[in-house]
Amino acid sequence: MAHxxxxxxxxxxxxxxxxxxxKGLGAQLPEAYKKFWREWKMTQPAAVHYIPKDGVxxxxxxxxxIKPIQNVPIPLIDPPESHQGIWGGEAVIKGxxxxxxxxxxxxxxxVPVLKRSVVHSQVLNEYMSVVVTDRTIEKxxxxxxxxxxxxxxxxxxLRSALALTLKRKILIELLNNCPxxxxxxxxxxxxxxxxxxxxxxxxxxxxxxxxxxxDEAIKKIATxxxxxxxxxxxxxxxRRKLIEHLQQATMKTETAESDExxxxxxxxxxxxxxxxxxxxxxxxxxxxxxxxxxxNWLSKINPFGKKQET
Length: 310
Known about the structure:
two-stranded antiparallel sheet
């Protein structure tokens, strides 16, 4: 009865579960970061802990039974320490081990052999002490350099957050024409000629968002939104409104004064003589009245003054 409901055609394959990019700040992340995320988390990495078999079918050597080939990848565990080094695609494997013939199997963790080594980046012009594995050293030698290894290897095979961060820094350095080698023009030209070809697979926006974890990308998009929509304090808004109100009031008064002066120029000349006489008379009256009223006023306030006889 899927046709009986409005959304029946959409529910034939079940409800679509919301992913981290369908809600909250994750929905506002750009397509450049989503492309990197698909390369890092949703792409099948190269086989490191098992040897994949070619073909579709295989025959059992003992029984002669034909079976389908199933290259099932081994589930890997990436501890926090793996993101602080470059393990070359290796990780921790959890499984079971039967240590004796007549004993039961017990849980066991296979951890790669780690060592600290120094690697050199020609683009960044830096030497770095990093925790690596033997496979990391082999891959660096196969790619003829640490920079070539990071730039050639996809994110799903690097796995490490440190390796992805260094790859983003190298791409940004190449995009800006290697400012760290500005004091060495010949070396700068050689490095750009050798590594500039890796920029063809990325756009500037993809380089900007490359190598971030999901939490780091959320923090970055949150800061960008906060900078674009900075809150304005109320005092600044009220000050702006007050200044606009005062400017409008001054403009109104100036226009009113200009109208009065233009219309009353003729009337003021005729009335100026009469106003002068009136002002002279008021001054004389005020001078005489003030002398008499001042004594009466002071006598009322001064408690030690003589009382007037009535």
